[in-house]
Amino acid sequence: MNLSKSFITALLSASLLVLSSCEKVLEVEPEFNKDGSQIFTNLKDYEFALTGAYAAFRQVGYFGNGGQTTGTWGTLPDMMSDNLVQTGEDLANFQNQTNWEYTADEADLDLAWSSAYYVIGQANLVLRNIDRFATEDAKKVNRLKGQALAIRGMVHFDLLRFWGESYERNSTAKGVPYKTAVDAEDLPSRLSVKETWDAIFKDMQEAETLLADVDAAVNTSSNKSKLDRNAVRALLARMHLYARNYTQAETFATQVITDVPLASKTAFPEIWKDGSVAEVLWAVSFNPGEGSPASNIHTASTNRNRYRPSASQEALYDKTNDIRYPAYIGTRVLSGNSRRIVNKHLGKGTALDNIVNWKALRTGEMYLIRAEARALQTGKEADALADLNALRAARIKEYLDLSLTGQALLDAIAEERRRELFVEGHRWFDVKRTTKTITRTDVALQSTVKTIASTAREWNWPIPTSELDANPIIKPQQTTGY
Q1: Measuring CA to CA, how many Å separate 276 from each of 35, 116, 172, 237, 264?
Q2: Mean pLDDT value of segment 457-463
Q3: CB burial class (10 A; 0-12, 13-18, 19+) of residue 216?
């Protein structure tokens, strides 16, 4: 029987409902495991399976980092862009991605693909037959099902970000397979981008509706480790921006902004040390022994500076007045040599171990989404400028409003995204969805590739060889150019 490796992995995730976690992060620790072939008999089983889905985000192929493998949707999109510079202290573990030299047999791309479908498999386990408990406790079903649908939709969106050949809402270009069942024998076809979006938005819209009517709060005021309604709306805002549905992007971003204000200038630096959850909408929780979100950039425990901020990135900040600058970028000394480092993910409090929660969604991004969406709609430039100025005023002391229109306004919003979202996993995708133009003027190694053509195949990742070999349906649907 010929089975897809990634989908087998996704099914096997059912046998490990929860990876290691502590109660303060994910609230419950399962007392048993259930095999994917077993049918859950109560909602407690589904609750434990959902905990396992969240735990799976800490895999080294997703947001975690395992030394030899980077968190695909964490720091890698910055490493692949002009935000960071590979240094001589790096061990070249991620050089293929940094230099856009990946191929279908690249191990890290294979891991990224299988890790994503692992999470999807766990979400599908939660969704399997859960509706039969709706008469018993409809609101609890809504809470569990809504989160699982949001996870499934979000992970397929992340796959689309790297593998999709277009982000246009109705594009017939190649998207990704959409997995909706716990079935190792299912060998799905690669959907078009439009079909992928159809499935993503179906899941996300249902999740947003369900999470409006639940039995208990999904998160607390001090713990944002799960996808609640605001987080789902934030994801919908991000997704609609990519799909160029600007009215919807503005609407969802506005709903989040209304409910969750920007952090104060005092609280903002504490976000990156896990001393505050101000404006955090969703953070993937990390604890000692579970990998680290950003040690592939600067390994704080050993003071190895693998990737430093680029000169062009540093030049974006008002170094005196912008509170982001010292929160994001700093200096460390090794053997008498001073090096510029990324401060953002060094550790909780004063710790230097890179063990911090990964801030996957923040209100700051919502201001930038709404500003861009408004700037691209007729008659809303003034509102877009107001959003840009509001975010900058929250981050920059003694700030004076800008006055911009047209392309200058769009350029300023794009620049602010680079400034605000530095090393949060956005830059590669922002360039891909807009200009497809990267020119690295600051490099430290002769091996660093400085430019990538806007028509290059490498803007879209290849389907891994292992998947092609296992799934005869998808084999002829390899990404164009590979």
Answers
A1: 38, 29, 43, 24, 11
A2: 98
A3: exposed
Q: Show the beta-strand stretches assigned E in 40-192.
A: 84-86
* DSSP annotation of 189: P
359 membership: H or E segment, kind and range = strand 358-362
Instruction: List, for residues 340-365, the tens digit of each pLDDT value.
Output: 999 999 999 999 999 999 999 999 99
CA 459 to chain CA centroid, nearest Å: 17
SS3 385: helix
For 134-157, what is the mean pLDDT?
98
> Angle 187-198-102 (CA atoms, 0-180°, nearest 5)?
55
pTM surpassing 0.85? yes
Helices 381-395, 406-420: axis angle to 10 degrees equals 30
pLDDT digits (tens, 9 = 90+) for 259-280: 999 999 999 999 999 999 999 9
Of the candidates 310, 311, 309, 304, the one whose C-alpha atom is nearest the C-alpha of residue 354 is 304
How many CB atoms are closer than 10 A to CB 398? 8
Confidence band (pLDDT; 50, 70, 90) for 39?
confident
> How far, CA to CA in Å, does 281 sit from each of 24, 228, 254, 292?
17, 8, 14, 20
Instruction: Name the residue type at position 430.
Output: D
Nearest CA to 162 among 68, 76, 65, 55? 76
- Which burial class, exposed, middle or buried, applies to 309 when counting CB atoms under 10 A from its CB (0-12, 13-18, 19+)? buried
388-417 per-position pLDDT tens digit: 999 999 999 999 999 999 999 999 999 999
Give which of 391, 302, 329 is closest to 83, Cα–Cα: 329
Q: At residue 16, what are phi and psi to the nearest 5 degrees?
A: -125, 80
Distance CA 232, CA 247 (A): 17
Tokens 């769009």 belong to which residue? 410
Alpha helix positions (H), 34-75: 43-56
List b or e across 180-203, with b for residues whose CB sees 16 or more CB atoms inside 10 angstroms: bebbbebbbebbbbbbbbbbbbeb
Q: Do residues 124 and 180 make contact, with C-beta atoms less than 8 angstroms apart?
A: yes
Whole-number Å distance between alpha carbons of 415 and 132 = 49
C-alpha atoms less than 13 angstroms from C-alpha of 104 in its C-beta half-sphere: 15
Closest of 276, 263, 297 to residue 349, by C-alpha: 276
